[in-house]
Structures are given as structure tokens and as C-alpha cells.
Amino acid sequence: MSEQAASARVAFLGLGVMGYPMAGHLARAGHQVTVYNRTAAKAQAWEAEHGGRAAATPREAAQDADFVFACVGNDDDLRGVVLGEQGALAGMRADAVFVDHTTASAEVARELYAAARAKGVHFVDAPVSGGQAGAVNGVLTVMCGGDAAPFDAMKPVALAYSRAVTRVGESGAGQLAKMVNQVCIAGLLQGLSEAIAFGQRAGLDMKQVLDVISKGAAQSWQMENRGHTMVDDQFDFGFAVDWMRKDLGLVLDEARRNGARLPVTALVDQFYADVQTQGGGRWDTSSLVKRLK
Length: 293
Ligand SMILES: NC(=O)c1ccc[n+]([C@@H]2O[C@H](COP(=O)([O-])OP(=O)(O)OC[C@H]3O[C@@H](n4cnc5c(N)ncnc54)[C@H](OP(=O)(O)O)[C@@H]3O)[C@@H](O)[C@H]2O)c1
Hints:
Mean pLDDT: 97
Low-confidence stretches: none
CATH superfamily of the largest domain: NAD(P)-binding Rossmann-like Domain
Bound molecules: NADP nicotinamide-adenine-dinucleotide phosphate
Shape: globular
Structural class: alpha/beta
Strand order of the largest sheet: 3-2-1-4-5-6
Oligomer: single chain
Number of domains: 2
Largest sheet: 6 strands, parallel
Number of helices: 13
CATH topology of the largest domain: Rossmann fold
Radius of gyration: 20 Å
Distance between the termini: 53 Å
Helix content: 40-55%
Number of strands: 9
């Protein structure tokens, strides 16, 4: 299948930090975009900036759409825009594809997949990695679960804001892959935090040390993109601790079901609770280092 997307009728539900720029990329790619946002002012601002149309309900936005994208907060928010009389499913035509970019549970993905299939609609769980900068610059990584045919159909459209869109399995598998991503990040950030706090106590110029060791085996995205700001105690940007705790809650729930042992992840989740107590719920996840300084 060609990766070049033909112009499609699309809806985008949820114009937050992530959704607003993602929907903007869809408009710039030439799609006819209808947006919905719970707080209508954001949808109006988006409409003023990008053209397209703002709808009053998810159902109205989804009417006649080939693809309905969503990026809202958590499982319940997602149910709120998908189900019910004013939900997107009530407005979607048979064979249209719902693509969910929310970081949510694998369970809600399977639940909504079943609800969609019962109406002849397709549902792809498609959480993203890459953060606000990835959304603004259109270079997100998208991990998808669901049926192959609707995935093949949505991929060229989602490439408007992504550099990689990959199907990793059946319904729920995209959310499970995102959980793997968050397990990696949690442990890694704690290691990086300990390294920086240790180096600073030892009297090292830690920016210089990070520049040196990021050329070797300790290199990571977090080290390259967050190392210097961690040294400087700057956390007023990025991926919020509150969101990370939501994500780690999803991970730990899933681990209770599948029997996986996640001792470090569970501990780091508690460290993030400390950061929230310090008033850091909206700080970037690299603020783990604050506990150690
Ligand atoms: N920010 C990141 O770096 C990042 C990275 C990867 C993944 N994610 C994930 O992407 C999702 C969105 O994150 P974000 O940073 O864009 O969040 P955000 O800025 O807080 O935006 C959340 C969006 O969801 C809408 N919403 C929330 N609850 C709703 C409800 N019950 N009904 C209808 N709409 C509702 C909000 O509408 P209002 O405007 O009315 O509040 C807003 O448009 C989350 O699952 C997050 O974990 C975020």
C-alpha cells in the first residue's frame, strides 16, 4: 500500500498538548478536519488557526468521517468521547476507523474494540511516544494494536504527525507496547538521577561528564535531552509527573494480571508520588532527581 495518504475526512477529538498540534498536521496534509474539544474555546482557537470545522459533540464531529482520531486523558475520558448518545460511535458510519492516541489500558482498548465491531466500525489503539516536541514537529512514534486492514488504512494518514507507525499485535497490543516504553523510561530516569546526584556530590562538572559519557554505552535519549536541565534543576516543561503516575498505574495493574515482576518500576512509582507531594505533579518526569539533591 502506498504511504501517501489521499485526502480524507477526519475528526480529531481532544485538542490538548498533544492533540492540538497533531490535528494541525492533519489539516496541513490536506485532510478535511473536524475537531471536537470538551472546552469549546480550544476548538474555536484551532479552527481559527487551521480552518476546518469545530463540532459541538464527538458524535457530530464523527459524522461522515473516514477516520476519527482521539487523544484525551485516561480510560474514563476515552469512554466519555466514544460511548453514549453524544459519543463518536453513535455518529460513525460502518467501516470507518477510530484511532485512539490516548495512553490508556489494554482493557479499555479491547472493550471499545468490541463495542466498535458490534457497530461495524474499526478500532485501533495507537498510543504515542515522543512528547509535546514530537507532536509539534510531527515526529511521533505510534504503537498500534488491532486488525491489519484498518491499520493499513490509518497508517498513511497518521504519518502526517509521525515518523513511525507500527502494528505490534491485536487489540490492546499498542497499549501494552506503550507500557513497555514507560517501564524502560522509569528505571532509566532513576538511574540517571542517581548518577547526576552522585556526580554533583563528588564535585564533578556534571554537564561536562554527561557530554563525555553520552558518547559511550551510557547514552540515552533522556541523558541527551534532559541531562543538562536535570543538573540545572529545570523541570517546568515536558511530560508531567501526573501523567507518568497514571501510566505506571496502568503498568502495575497489568503486571498484577499477567504476573510480571516489576520491583524497580513499583519503587519509582512511589518516588514519583514523593515528587507530587513536593508540588511537582506538572513537572517533567526528569524531576525524579529532585528527591536526591
Ligand atoms: N504530553 C505528553 O508529552 C504526552 C506524551 C505521550 C502520551 N501522552 C498521552 O496523551 C494523552 C493526552 O495528553 P496531553 O498532554 O495532550 O493532555 P492534555 O493537554 O491534558 O489534554 C487532554 C485533552 O483531553 C480532553 N479531555 C480530558 N478529559 C476529557 C473528557 N472526560 N471528555 C472529553 N475530553 C476530555 C481535554 O479537554 P479540555 O481541553 O476540555 O480539558 C484535552 O483536550 C494522555 O493520555 C497522555 O498520557 C502525552
